[in-house]
Amino acid sequence: MTVVRPFRVAYAAAAAATVFGALTGRDRWQWAAKPLLMPLLAADVVRSGGVAPAERRVLLGALGAATVGDVLLIDPDDDRRLVAGASAFAVMQAGYSVLWWRSGARPRAAVALPRVVAWLGAGALLRARTPRLAVPLSAYGATLGTAAVLASDPALAPTAKNIAGTNLPGRDPRSRLGVGALLFTVSDGLIVLRRLFARTTRSRRTTEGVILATYAAAQYLLTDPRAHAQRPARSRGAQQR
């Protein structure tokens, strides 16, 4: 039987309104809907249960930091807000990394290498085009890359198939974490490209809509309480062996 999760349904509606507001230039829609996104996911975490108290505190703290970042980035064309938002999201990414690490994820060279190359490339592009943003955004990129590498560790979902360093989504919610991290990386990469290359109103709105859509999908997957639920002791022991 399918269980309806009202806070996740409300999240999807708020995400749709946020994306629509970005695509059409309706800032009021974003101000009304975007600050609700992470609190709705946090409410789902609390309501669903199953997450150990320590992990729940980390997850809720990460969502709190993401809420701050969401509000700051409602105006993505203000560089000061962009840097402050990146700082808030760095706290969130650090929280996610703690969760993956506690779940047994470890960095693997095959998973980390392409992300390191992408991080170096983005940093070089920022230094060439907008040096004042290079250091803070590169620092944030390091936290993003760390979380993405850990989320893509096959050990998080041992039964899932893994291709090119990413677990293929399956019935196990943990198998979707890698895709969530990948979507987050795409979203943040587009933020950099939008800042550097989008010049027309239409291109900026369209890019912002895609950024928000991929971001919302990423958070939906990464914060699923079932992916953070306590594993039975037997399963943990089997994984360690």
From TrEMBL:
It comes from the Bacteria. The chain crosses the membrane at residues 82-101, 133-157, 177-197. Its main location: membrane. One of its GO terms (molecular function) is hydrolase activity. It is a multi-pass membrane protein. InterPro entries: TMEM86B-like (IPR012506). It is found in: Membrane. It holds the Pfam family YhhN. GO terms for cellular component: membrane. Keywords: Membrane, Transmembrane, Transmembrane helix. Belongs to the TMEM86 family. This is Lysoplasmalogenase. It comes from Nocardia wallacei.
